[in-house]
Amino acid sequence: MELTTKDASTRKRSVALVGLVLGVALLQRGLTVLMIAGGVGQDKLVSSLMAYDSLWYGRVVEHGYQLAGEAGLKISSLAFFPLFPGMAKALTLVTGASTSTALLALAFVGSVLAAWPIFAIGRHLYSARVGLVLTLLWGASPQSFVLVMGYPEGWFTAATAWALLFMMQRRPLPAAVAVTMAGLLRPSAVPLVAVMVVWCFLQWRRDPLRRLRWPAAAMLAPVGLASFVAYTAWRMDDLFGYFAVQKQWNLQMGGPWAFWEQITEQLRSSNALLISVDLYVPIILGYVVLLVLLMGWWRKTDHGWMVLYTLLASLLILSRSTYFWSEPRQFLPLFPLLIPLATIRTSAWAWGAVIVGLTMATGAFGGAFLAAMQYSP
Q1: Residues 6+ apart with CB under 8 A from 360
Q2: Going by C-beta distance under 8 Å and a sequence separation of 6 or more, which residues neighbour residue 67?
Q3: Which DSSP state fits 66?
Q4: Are 370 and 40 in contact (CB under 8 A)?
Q5: Residues linked to residue 320 through DSSP beta bridges, in sequence order
Q6: Is 273 helix (H, G, I), strand (E, B) or coil?
Q7: Do residues 294 and 307 touch, judged by C-beta distance below 8 A?
Q8: pTM of the entire structure?
Q9: What is the pLDDT of residues 293-349, one digit of tens each?
Q10: Which uninterrupted H or E stretch holds 190?
């Protein structure tokens, strides 16, 4: 009876903590929206939040996937993975909401819900305090204003975080479901799928009972990503159709030095548009420093697979030879990079001041970006 009472008390405390985290995350997203509105004006808020890739997701919701040449398109909308626009389409059918309302509502909800597994990982590895700081640092990180745009970053981060948490808890099937969802949200799920499959194989080898849950999870993990790549091949009537779509969008991978080559090009450029992107150079260099710091922790309990995923995903981002200005957004789902910062010990009021300041700065930057910049975040 005493154990049951203790368990119930622990459960209530956990529920209260999650409620607190979600509430604070909600306030943080609200502050971001207010700061953006201050930059673009309230009358242009919705149109600004539905700019760039948001428009393409809206097109998928309203017209389905279209190939280059259809409806006057020069490039195919198959570059955008289906789960996020699919949920928005379902929401419009059920509620009668407009496409923009559905996409923005889903993005906002997804970015708030992502706080739950991020907090849970911080709490699992360290403490509730570290989990809360990690969650709020993620919500205030560079380019985090896209979390309230019509982008799937919040949902993708949530799926990634759940997958990593379930791996720490040695729960392969729930982890595989989360990886499958991530694979239906963004192509950047490739490193997560790879880590999941290798993890399942090694755990199966070490399992004296050789239980089937490990190979089952390994086979389930790539289903989301592979199914959309297969669908793209079918629509394009080309086995390598997805790569053809990537080529249409000028999404190219470079060598190991692509990152440095892009930085050199940015700093030497006299093009006014590229010069405005120079502010991303210190941001990306900062992520590289955080990656090096995180690498030193891979031997710690439950850190290994998370660190490996973060390393592979970071190298994939840094190896891209195009769209330099979107790299800070690509780093957004890699919240483990913020763990070295989240574990810094200081007073609660100091962390509060830092996080509020960062959130306001990020939101203000988002407002200025959407009001003036000419390239996609």
Answers
A1: 31, 35
A2: 73, 76, 78, 235, 236
A3: -
A4: yes
A5: 253
A6: helix
A7: yes
A8: 0.95
A9: 999 887 787 889 999 999 999 999 988 877 777 888 999 999 999 999 999 999 999
A10: helix 190-206
